Amino acid sequence: MPVYRIAPAALLAAALCTPFHAQAADAPAGAGAQSQVQPQGQSASAASSLIAAAEAQLAEGKVDEAVATLTQAVAADPKSSLAHTRLGGAKIIKQEYSAAIRDFRNALAADPNNADAFVGMAVAYLHSGDHALARAALGEAKRLAPAKGPEIDKVLDSLDRGETGDVPPGL
Fold first, then answer.
1. How far out from the chain centre does Cα 83 lie?
2. What's the CA gap between 65 and 55, in Å, rounded?
3. What CATH number is given to the structural domain containing 59?
4. Domain range for residue 41?
5. Cβ distance 167 to 4 under 8 Å?
6. Domain count, the chain
């Protein structure tokens, strides 16, 4: 199965690894980010703390620990689209693409306007070799978050040219 030299690493990092507290200031209204970054209630507060801890673990390269922490975040707040999105991103790093796709689907069930979940899903589909579903997910991400359009277009252009090669380490 070919792997892609295109920019999924950069796209994934921008979409899935931006600390959730930073997204609140940058998120356009109606882009799904509000429900991701402003959780309600005690379980959501616990999930937010766990997500922050997992982000620190990922920054230190502790991927297995981050997956465990994000799994706890999902258990604490199963309706947290952000927790599911971050868990999917961590599973991509572990190259668990089918599991990542399930997590992104759960994120979208919680928030159908979560552009980052569509980006993550596209990256997982690319690594799984399903170009049609990757294109569809990227199209939805671009529709929901037009600011991501230039990066998404680069990925689509690379797909159109059939560029394959090694994916950078860590994906």
1. 10
2. 10
3. 1.25.40.10
4. 8-20+30-161
5. yes
6. 1
pTM for the model: 0.76
Q: pLDDT digit of tens for each residue in the chain (171 aa)?
A: 444 444 454 455 445 545 544 443 334 333 443 334 434 566 778 999 999 999 999 999 999 999 999 999 999 999 999 999 999 999 999 999 999 999 999 999 999 999 999 999 999 999 999 999 999 999 999 999 999 999 999 888 888 887 654 333 333
| Nearest-angstrom CA–CA distance, 44 and 154 | 35
One-character DSSP codes across 62-120:
-HHHHHHHHHHHHHH-TT-HHHHHHHHHHHHHTT-HHHHHHHHHHHHHH-TT-HHHHHH
Residue 145 phi, psi (nearest 5): -135, 80
Query: Is residue 84 in a domain?
Result: yes
Q: Is 165 helix (H, G, I), strand (E, B) or coil?
A: coil
Specify if 100 maps to a domain. yes
